[in-house]
């Protein structure tokens, strides 16, 4: 478990998840294996994120594009068939030089009167900037409770994101790595998970 874990964060101690995450660190894995491993990790985290909860009414699953797509189906499959789940997507990318988040897609309805609890899936929290931006968007939208689910974070990124709205957000995390490189990638990390999931670009 990481040192200085924020009070609103839970780090998994699941040995199978740890094994799968170590497998994912292998940069020689092809995209198919990366997708399968990501889905396996997402299923474990879905169990941990919803343990002891019986959501009432409509809940939201917020998928952070594009890498959150790798967790979406596995997470959805965990909900009971009668659970009223609506899926929304928020597109964010990190500007190359400033490392600041840029929103490029958001189809949240203008008026939210029904959805008060949401689960956010985004495989990595690196600097914490994207997570913070998503939390602020959802808070402004009228959500009352956010469970933010990620496979891997940096210590710095988790601490930063956890401060965004501590009374309304909890984090369920697979593991925490110690640091970031100059380009904002987690070290040792898993590289550019979006590129690895979809076979685009070069893995970092």
From TrEMBL:
Biochemical pathway: Pyrimidine metabolism; UMP biosynthesis via salvage pathway; UMP from uracil: step 1/1
InterPro entries per record: PRTase-like, PRTase_dom, UPRTase/APRTase
UniProt-recorded Gene Ontology molecular function terms: GTP binding; uracil phosphoribosyltransferase activity
Phosphoribosyltransferase domain segment(s): 50-200
Cofactor: Mg(2+)
Top-tier EC class: transferase
Keywords of this entry: Allosteric enzyme, Glycosyltransferase, GTP-binding, Nucleotide-binding, Transferase
Domain of life from the UniProt record: Eukaryota
Protein EC: 2.4.2.9
PANTHER family xref list: ADENINE PHOSPHORIBOSYLTRANSFERASE, URACIL PHOSPHORIBOSYLTRANSFERASE, CHLOROPLASTIC
Family (UniProt): Belongs to the UPRTase family.
Entries under NCBIfam families matching the protein: PRK00129.1
The name this protein goes by in its record: uracil phosphoribosyltransferase
Organism in which the protein naturally occurs: Talaromyces atroroseus
